[in-house]
## 1
Amino acid sequence: MPLSTNDQVNTTAGALVGALQGAFGKHPGYRPAHAKGTLVTGIFTPTAEAAKLSKAQHFNSPTPITVRFSNSTGIPVIPDTDPNASPRGLGIRFNLGGRKHTDIITHSTPFFPVKTGEDFLAFLGALGANAAYKGESPTPLETFLGSHPETLAFIQAPKPTAESFVGLSYFGVNAFKFVATDGTITTIRYQVHPTVGTEVLSAEALKEKSPNFLFEELPGRLASGPVELKLVAQIAEEGDPTHDATVHWPESRKIVELGTLKLEELEQEPKNSEDQKYIIYDPVPRVEGVESTDDPLLDMRASIYLISGRERRAAPELQI
């Protein structure tokens, strides 16, 4: 997983890592965003339709997976009941063998706050300035949101919390190109949907939960047997934007089931925390059969993850 070949992307990515650490505190050994998480291992079994769309190895044969569920923010001890802990994150690593892998990054809302890394840096700057602002309206944040309606839409969008991490739907906001064996290209966005019926919690019910209820619920559920999630692809049509993660494609677009994520075992401590410190999920596919689109966030997010991941790995120990 290399840094971007664009120096400006890497400069902005480094500034974003610093801004996130400024917002949430610097916690050596933890991610600057989605710091609180846990790892689950299992197997992905693709459908025949997935094999038609992509020649990628994991869409043509069962593949071991390492899944990470997480809370938002860079606070390692954020309560699961805190509204800022949503949207929840779901990272999926397909372990292809020979130290090779490809990943999918999703979170529990189809909304995303920005379309570029520069906009995200400006957004974090507005949040920071807002905290110290004592003047009249418009505040720095109001000014930013007034010129960035997509960020306002993300803030205002519902971000549900269920009884379990596995009771939510997750969305990959970036677009990718599937390449079939015959060279046919299909542009898609990923979605992950639950197969279990878990209740979405009201704000009142959420307040009654324990601070770690999601992380406490998952071990017991997996101890009773594997849990399945469905990986699907939303298929783009001509004119659907691929360069802007904040623009939704119409709900009428075709949905194709790609396969089943069978979650089997929660990694135990201390291995769970050690592996989370080491693993760097990669938004860029880097596998034959799946390619990046023109979405600038892909390159930016990859550099952010790598820069912060190198810092995380270099930390002598985890420090909350």
Note: The domain at 7-111+157-314 is CATH 2.40.180.10 (Catalase HpII,  Chain A, domain 1).
## 2
Amino acid sequence: MGKWVSVAEKRQFLKWFLAQQQLKRKEAGRVLEHLLQHYHLLEQVIFTEEIRSRERTIVVSSIQSEETGFAFYLYRKKIDDPARAIGELQANPADPVYVILHFHGKAQNQQYLQMLDSESREYIKHYKQFRAYKKEAGSLIEAVLIETEKNTLLKQIDEALDHKDEQRFKLLVKQLQELDAQTS
């Protein structure tokens, strides 16, 4: 962890999140509102990106996310009932509460990134790096496939010339020209 975030910053961010995001499950908003209403609970909130199997973790998602709308992980058990989550928060107010928020654009949202514990910031940094590498690798693979296809056509053109097959030669030259036109 290592990063301290004030209760005021947490409150401001959660208010922004609730105002800007439409949640998949409205009851999930009640859990976040409960945290906002209780200073001592908000003190225990740690924003993260991974479920802590031995800790209390709340997961809330907006409608733009593919993740589950709400989940509360309580010491290796998954609970889908927001009312039970609120009850657990009230029963053990001194225990840390990890909060995972899923919404569109969170990887670029500076306010959100400032809330995250340092491990999660590293996770997002690596994710962005992975996406860039994936895009670059995809472009490279596509270029190699096109080059291979061109080389194959050139060899077939040579064979058509060797066999004096004018019809096949014209067909292959046309295919090569079409391939060049697509990649230009």
Note: The radius of gyration is 27 Å.
